[in-house]
Amino acid sequence: MDVKKVLLGLFLVGVLGIAVVASGCIGGQQTATPTTVTQKETVTETKPVEQVTLKVIGPWSGAELDAFMEVIKAFEAQHPNIKVEYKTYRAEDLSTILPLQFESGDTPADVIAMWGWFIAEMGQKGHLMEFNEVINPDEYVPGILDTVTADGKIYGVPFTAAAKPGFWYRKSFFEKHGLKPPETWDEFVALLEKIKQIPGVKAPIVSGDSVGWPLSDVTEHFILTFGGKDLQLKLINGEVKWEDPQVRSIFEQRLVPLLKAGYFSDPIEWTSAVDLWWKGDYALYFMGTWITGMVDDPTDLGLISLPGVKAMVLAPDYFMVPKYTSHPKEAMELAKFLATEGQRIHVGTKSGKLATWKKVSIDDYWEPMKDVAKVVANVESAPDLDDSIGGEWQKTFWDQLKLLWVQPNRLDDVLSTLDAKFPKK
């Protein structure tokens, strides 16, 4: 076959096909309208998600803040439209600042960590959001919500709690000097005397101070050991006086003799005391469980509770949401997260805290805290005495204990002052 003829035939078929298509598009029944000319495209506009910045105030700094920020990072990851800004304020300062701002309809932050009694008081005055429909009270340690509840309304949510279980020591220090934890009160006193004789040790027990509460924590441990949770609650409620014989005997027979014997140091700024104790200037330090996150090697920590201890303080942090927040929905969402899944994250860090939300398990804990959590689980949980009473009396309590620490012969004056300054019911 002639190649030229074949090519010519194919060319003619192509031209014919183009003519047919053109005919159908222009003059036939199958005319197609070019979309680029006459067909309108439908464009769906997506409204951008509003970015919200929440301000949070808490008492933490340093290592404690690092642990808390792990919780905040997790919240921000789950809520990409919310950014959290954190500021550190002492609760003592906030107790003066917040009432004035609330009365003027303003707030320095959207979510604020504060004392439980203060939260209940501000809630009753109409300054705070309510959490009754936000959290389930049955999911928390019994009694943990009592402090932030007034007239059946829940004005704050619990976060993790510090336990105040006893005197911490370095295992390496005890091994070096042939010391062992005591099992009786007499053995405890004998241990203190033996430590006192070790060259280079300034005192067996370092007394943390400058913020008031370290000395009150030690005192409460003595009350809970020798008086139990019942006595602690009666002191909180004003049902028992500080000059009551049962209370006086705990001071006269247990605490004051140790002070007079020089087993406690004079009060020292509490964070500086950590460093001095860790390097061996002192052997024991009564502190809450958060100390596990403040030392170089938490696996070197040992714990001595007073022999026969009946109860321990479980001191949770609480958060409140002022009604004056510009972002109530997002602020309540953050508060709920802190009270629930945020606790699971927090106990897994070096925070040294215990969960108040019952859905957190032992497996969720940072390894050095697992044994502590088990110890605390075997005694009664008691509320923090001075935090529960609060107000001006709390400051009086701190000041009077400083006096007692340096002048233990002033016990009578201390006890009478605590009774005289106790808030009237």
Explain how this protein is built.
- By secondary structure, the chain is an alpha/beta fold.
- The chain folds into 2 domains: 52-162 and 316-382, D-Maltodextrin-Binding Protein, domain 2, CATH 3.40.190; 167-308 and 390-420, 3-Layer(aba) Sandwich (D-Maltodextrin-Binding Protein, domain 2).
- It is 44% helix and 16% strand.
- The chain is built from 16 helices and 13 strands.
- Strands 1, 2, 3, 6, 12 and 13 form a 6-stranded mixed sheet that branches. A 5-stranded mixed sheet has the order 9-8-10-7-11, sandwiched between helices. It has a two-stranded antiparallel ribbon with strand order 4-5.
- Strand 1, helix 2 (62-78) and strand 2 (82-88) form a beta-alpha-beta unit.
- Helix 15 runs antiparallel to helix 16.
- The radius of gyration is 33 Å and the shape is globular.
- The relative contact order is 0.15.
- The model is unreliable at 1-40 (pLDDT under 50).
